[in-house]
């Protein structure tokens, strides 16, 4: 594989944890409601109104934020807080200045969730993001989103991150849990620019590519992308990734890097 550009370009992500955790090995502690910084509310309001004027399709919701993550006793333990979509965008816009001035505590840390999706006919599914999305329009991406937090979160029922990624696949590809043959969490990564964390899963489907294309036509959030790509697995690491990595979002690039590691170390356990 040609790697000269890969070596010279700065890394767009950091791998925080890698492994293979099944559903019962991912433990989420009760959510901590930190709230957005009160002293920034006026600036956030102005910023959000400007964003809405540019893109009325944006929606502000309550999102899970990553407070801490640790691998212990073969489990992945996550401590989550609460942030909002509008503060996520505000944080992304100010991340570089906050990092350089020692104000990392202001970062949103909204936890993204992504799935590297394999079909039954050995294709990797990717999307080309639409112009209407709030982050990385037009880029190639894996499927996923964020973990929604209800208005009254329950301390006894913290978010289920596996159910959350299944919901994202249902909304974006129209597939249900019955279509999933195997799944596990394969790691946690972080965007080098805005410090946004991403929890990454591997999902193997019972469906072939054509069946997924059929179901995606009925997906409720199919408007978030303009093209559904199916890359042969044999081509991914032997050329496609090196040739297309700069077209990927940072989280997609991190997802594929973790997938290659997972493929070498764990995938055979599922076959």
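-> sequence recovered:
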């Amino acid at each position: 594989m040609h790697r000269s550009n890969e070596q010279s370009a700065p890394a767009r992500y950091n791998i925080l944890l890698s492994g293979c955790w099944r559903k019962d090995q991912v433990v989420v502690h009760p959510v901590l409601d930190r709230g957005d910084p009160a002293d920034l509310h006026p600036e956030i309001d102005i910023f959000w109104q400007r964003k809405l004027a540019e893109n009325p399709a944006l929606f502000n919701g309550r999102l899970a934020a990553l407070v801490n993550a640790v691998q212990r006793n073969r489990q992945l333990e996550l401590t989550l807080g609460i942030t909002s979509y509008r503060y996520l965008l505000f944080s992304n816009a100010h991340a570089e200045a906050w990092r350089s001035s020692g104000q990392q505590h202001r970062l949103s840390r909204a936890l993204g969730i992504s799935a590297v999706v394999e079909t039954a006919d050995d294709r990797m599914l990717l999307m080309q993001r639409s112009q209407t999305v709030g982050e990385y329009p037009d880029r190639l991406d894996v499927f996923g989103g964020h973990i929604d937090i209800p208005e009254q979160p329950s301390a006894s029922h913290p978010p289920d991150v596996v159910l959350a990624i299944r919901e994202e696949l249902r909304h974006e590809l129209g597939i249900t849990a019955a279509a999933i043959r195997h799944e596990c969490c394969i790691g946690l990564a972080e965007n080098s620019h805005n410090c946004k964390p991403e929890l990454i899963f591997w999902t193997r489907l019972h469906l072939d590519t054509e069946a997924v294309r059929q179901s995606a036509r009925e997906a409720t959030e199919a408007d978030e992308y303009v093209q559904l790509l199916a890359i042969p697995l044999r081509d991914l690491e032997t050329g496609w990734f090196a040739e297309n990595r700069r077209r990927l979002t940072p989280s997609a690039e991190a997802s594929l890097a973790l997938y290659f590691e997972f493929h070498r170390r764990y995938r055979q356990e599922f076959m």
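The radius of gyration is 18 Å.
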